[in-house]
Amino acid sequence: MTAAERDRIVNGYHQAAEKIAERYDAIDPTHHANPAFGCLPTDPSHVLDVGAGTGRVAAWLCAQGHRVTAIEPADGLRTFGMARRGGQPIRWLDGALPELTPLGNGNNAFDAVIMIGVWHHVPTDMRASAIQRLGSLLVPGGRILASLRHGPTAPDRPGFPASADEMSDLAERQGIRCIYRAEAPSIQPGNKKRGVTWTWWVGETST
């Protein structure tokens, strides 16, 4: 996949932002991500939210006392999130996997990385470099929390098959071991009707 093709996916989210932002924002993070969120640090930490969307999870993390960097490539969703959460100390950036260019070197900068509904949009040939990039951003013992989508996607926001086995294999090559995985149904009625399911996956870097 070329960068231009990936940009078309991002643009699909930008164009759909007015339609989907409120719906996405209404989802309670603690409802659909438990118990995976129990794998996140309990002490105040620096967390990176990749594909942050409207910032609903970033806001929840801030409320738990974490310092949050939210990176979102779709202008429409990022603008919505910045306006909705202007009073919260979220650092907003524009960027996408695998480069996450605005973070620069960023070595060992974060205690945890979360990716909610993102990984299926990362093309297969970009995933190894994406995991490598994420691993480089984490402190020793840092964790990656991801939700992997299975099932159809919107035509203007296409996705690619993603599996927990593939995720674990790619992560292990970077010294990141899977410590948690669980299957879950979609909580959005439309997606559930279409047979969409999810795998929650958490990996930990070596100390």
Amount of beta strand: 25-35%
The sequence of SSEs as H and E is: HHEHEHEEHEHEHE
- Major sheet attributes: 7 strands, mixed
Mean pLDDT: 92
Decide which structural class fits the backbone: alpha/beta
- The gyration radius over C-alpha positions equals 16 Å
Helix % is 25-40%
Overall shape = globular
Total helices: the number is 7
Span between termini: 34 Å
How many strands? 7
Poorly predicted ranges (pLDDT <50, ≥5 residues)? none
Spatially, the strands of the biggest sheet line up as 3-2-1-4-5-7-6
Question: What features would you highlight for this structure?
Answer:
alpha/beta; 7 helices; globular
Task: Give the topology, please.
Elements: H1 3-25, H2 29-32, E1 46-50, H3 56-63, E2 67-71, H4 75-84, E3 90-93, E4 110-115, H5 124-137, E5 138-150, H6 164-172, E6 176-185, H7 189-193, E7 197-205
Parallel strand pairs: 1-2, 1-4, 2-3, 4-5
Antiparallel strand pairs: 5-7, 6-7
Helix pairs in contact: 1-4
Describe the model.
The protein has 207 residues and is an alpha/beta fold. Helices cover 35% and strands 25% of the residues. The chain contains 7 helices and 7 strands, in the order ααβαβαββαβαβαβ. The chain has helices at 3-25, 29-32, 56-63, 75-84, 124-137, 164-172, 189-193; strands spanning 46-50, 67-71, 90-93, 110-115, 138-150, 176-185, 197-205. It has a 7-stranded mixed beta sheet, with helices on both faces. The radius of gyration is 16 Å and the shape is globular.
